[in-house]
Amino acid sequence: MSWRGVGDAYAASYASLCAGTGVRLRELAGAAHGRTLLDVGAGEGTLAVQWADAGWRVTAAEPELSMRAAAARQHPSLSVIDAALPDLPFADGAFDVVVANFVLNHLDDPREGARALRRVAADAVIATTWAHSPSAFWADVTAWAGLAPRPAKGVAADKDFERTSAGFGRMLTDAGWHPEVSELMWTWRPTSEALWRSVDGGVAGAGAFYRGLEVGEQRRFRAAFDEIVGERASSGRVELTHTAAIAIDSRR
C-alpha cells in the first residue's frame, strides 16, 4: 500500500480517527516531566503536537513528503524529520519513550520494525495496531456496489502476524519485546464528506482499491457509499466503532 501524496486527504479524514488512541497512550507513558519522546510514523503531526502540549520533548519522524508538508501547514511549530523504520538514525536508547501509532501493521517486516523501535527506547516503547478497523465499512460499500474485493498487496506470509490483540502480542514477543497488550474501543464520527475525502484521496486500502477501479465502477462505488451513508448517518455524521490493540514494553 502506497501512502505517497495522500497527506492532505489523510489530514482531512483518518487523522482524527487515528488520534483516538492519544489519551490512552499518554496515560500509559506517564507524566512527561520534560522527558524525550520519539513519534515514529507521525503522519500530519496531530499526536506529536498533543505529546508536546503535554510537556514532552518531542521528535517526530515521518518518511512521506506529503505528510510532512501537511504537518508543516497545520502545526508550524512542530519539527518533523524524514526518517522511517527500520533504519532510524538514532543511537540505542536515544529517547525515554518511543511511540508508533498504527505503523507496524503497514511494514513489510513488522518484527524488524518492532526491534528498531525498542532499540532506540530507554524507558518504554508503545505501539498500536487495528483489531477492528475502518476496512469493515468499506467492505460494506464494496459489496453494496456489487464489486469484487481485490486482494491488496499485503505482508508476506512468513512476515505477517494475526491481526488480533493476541497476535500482535505474539509478534512483538518474537521481536524481543515483553509486551503488555490491552484494547481500546471508541466511536469515530466523521462527516460523510471526510469519509469520502479519504477514499477519493487514495488513503489506506480503501483508497487504493477505489483508485484502481474503472470509471463506471467508481460511479457504482460512489452510489453505494451514498446509499449506506444515507441509511447510517445521523446529523450528517457516520458512527463507526473501532478497536485498537495497544502494546507497551516498559523497562521502568
TrEMBL record:
Name of a matching Pfam family: Methyltransf_11
Keywords: Methyltransferase, Transferase
Family annotation (Gene3D superfamilies): Vaccinia Virus protein VP39
Coiled coil, from the record: none
Keyword Methyltransferase found: yes
Methyltransferase type domain location: 38-121
Molecular function per GO: methyltransferase activity
Record-linked InterPro entries: Methyltransf_11, SAM-dependent_MTases_sf
Taxonomic superkingdom: Bacteria
Gene Ontology biological process terms, A to Z: methylation
Protein name: Class I SAM-dependent methyltransferase
